[in-house]
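Late entry, evening session. Most of the bench is empty. Finally got around to the prediction I had been postponing all week. Sequence below, unchanged from the version circulated by S.P.
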Amino acid sequence: MAGRKQRAIDNTRNLMGKRLSDDQKKFYSTNGYIFGMPPAFTPQQVRELNAGLDELMKLLRPGEDSKEIREWHESSRFLYGVCTNPIILDYVEDILGPDFYLWGSNFFIKPAHSSSTVGWHQDTYYWPLEPKISATVWLALEDVDEENAAMQVIPGSHKVGLLKHSRSSDTDSVLTLECEGGQFREDLAVSLNVKAGAFSIHDDKLVHGSPANRSNRRRAGLTIRYSSTIVKCDLSVNPYFKTYLCRGADMYKHNPVGVVPTQKFGRLDRKHISVEEAGVEAEKKLGLVKQQNALRY
């Protein structure tokens, strides 16, 4: 009897939501993103975040830059703690449901006067994950706006399925696998302006990117990837995939489970494999080369 009562309480809690209002949930469902929430970190904690980033940067080798700090939540207790911040997890739970895991993290930093861009893409095209029930948190380490190249999104683009992507090394983008032109309207793009310590969340199928940073200010953000526990990774494409349960229970046990790190600042020395690194054969294996949808407005 007590067990049934507790489950009823839990179900009521899930329906009510932890952080997002019904209107915010509807907005996310319709548009594929949400931002403007209160910061998850105080100004003092933001200073600690940036100090922690400095410590991680010291672990890079000659010729490497910040984008190599990828999945280091597996080796750094500091970064694992950021990725499992309870406030962030509350919002993610409102979107993905009560059972979800952490699996990815990556810094995207554009120095002042940088020509580097992030080309238009859909996250899910890069990931050998099914079903497509994932969300990305973009955590700002400083104020981010149009001036210093905030991320831009195409509202509603998560509803049209996978768009055609192509490979190119002749680009200023940090990505070499991008959406082909003519499939969506760039003039509909919305800039996700986020204050330091705050964050946005977007659906894994949402078309997004960011321009060059022509300002005098750095733009630094941490992306954190979460998926419902029903989501399974194709380990033949990415055999290094590891999950860290954040909320609820993993009844499916589809994926390898990572070990929570104990070292505060630790470097992760292993390969990183997304569809981008895995190559065209991975695209064919996953059926991605057959996807050719176009947005209609």
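Two things to note before I forget:
Residues 1-15, 291-297 have pLDDT under 50 and may be disordered.
The radius of gyration is 19 Å.
Will write this up properly tomorrow.
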